[in-house]
User: What shape does this take?
Amino acid sequence: MRPDIHPTAIVHAQAKLADDIVIGPYTILGPEVSLGRGTQVSSHCVLEYVSMGCDNFIAPGVYIGQAPQHSEQFEHTHAIIIGDNNRFREGFTIHRGIDRPTRIGSHGLFMAQSHVAHDCRVADSVIMANGALLGGIRKLASEPLFPVIQEPTSFAVWVHWHFWAVSPRQLWISCLSAWQ
Assistant: This one.
């Protein structure tokens, strides 16, 4: 069996793809991409610098592995590590880490237009509703602090998770809220 890659998709020569994955039209898989078995990537997606486990679903218009949105430019950034059985819906974005890999666990649901910033750690079974934002930070200190989301946590629509915040377990955050 060979990966099912649409003829309009662009796949970097070094991308590592499981035999049974599906890549949709006009999708770009850049360098240092590894996709596990059963993964489906819809149309108009861009994936770079990511190692992804098995059975993930990526809806149209998702961007994974872009450079961090930061006022500084960095020569070296860390890749993104994603577990198994996640659902990334339309317009989801996640950026590479500055000080360490950006990580997402397994069994998560990341709804439309949600965002995970550089250096964040997201545990298993996390739900981020439409427009929820998880802010990243780079702190110049001996022990950097980054947003950490523990399992299971749910974000409602348009929630902003502030820099340096750590979630308690089994947290549910209401609509139009901010957590510091």
